[in-house]
Q: What sequence folds into this?
């Protein structure tokens, strides 16, 4: 076997075309590891979804069984190993529908929390002053004004002005009913707004 000169060796070692090189097409070890961690995290997020939403994804049976087993597993080490298995099984599934389902579920929770906060804010404003009642009726004309006024009056009456805030202070039935009325009205307004889009 003949020895190659340095120039020949360098020319022999260089790939003719970067695109033709198999190393250029493969992801690095770091990228592969990152992808595996992302799939494992996505599998963990699947555990937060209700069973009906997971069933709607039509996941392969081994992955579904692994998710069920992870829900039952209590020990830290057992849970960790089960999550590794789920990450491995996630490689066989198209992750995009799973990502979309998890994102939609999280968005729904965030919207629910915002709606509750808005109802609480309106309730506090309505109890604090009469100008809020006018603003509410302008924004939500379909609300039963008589029922709303009655609940606001009763909630104001239930509030004890001399009571110390904090422990032991309990709100009356009208306070809770006012919240329910506001939350339902806000939900109807949100549904109507979604229908018009």
A:
């Amino acid at each position: 076997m003949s020895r190659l000169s340095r120039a020949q060796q360098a020319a022999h070692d260089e790939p003719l075309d970067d695109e033709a090189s198999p190393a250029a097409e493969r992801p690095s070890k770091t990228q592969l590891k990152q992808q595996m961690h992302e799939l494992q995290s996505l599998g963990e997020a699947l555990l937060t979804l209700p069973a009906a939403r997971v069933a709607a994804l039509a996941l392969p049976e081994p992955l579904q069984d692994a998710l069920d087993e992870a829900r039952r597993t209590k020990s830290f080490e057992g849970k960790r190993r089960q999550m590794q298995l789920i990450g491995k099984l996630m490689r066989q599934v198209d992750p995009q529908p799973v990502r979309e389902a998890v994102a939609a579920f999280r968005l729904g929770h965030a919207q629910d929390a915002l709606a509750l906060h808005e109802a609480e804010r309106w309730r506090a404003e309505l109890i604090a002053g009469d100008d809020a009642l006018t603003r509410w009726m302008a924004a939500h004309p379909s609300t039963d004004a008589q029922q709303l006024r009655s609940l606001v009056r009763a909630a104001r009456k239930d509030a004890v002005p001399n009571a110390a805030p904090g422990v032991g202070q309990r709100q009356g039935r009208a306070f809770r009913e006012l919240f329910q009325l506001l939350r339902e009205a806000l939900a109807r307004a949100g549904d109507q707004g979604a229908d018009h889009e």
Q: What stands out?
A: The radius of gyration is 30 Å.
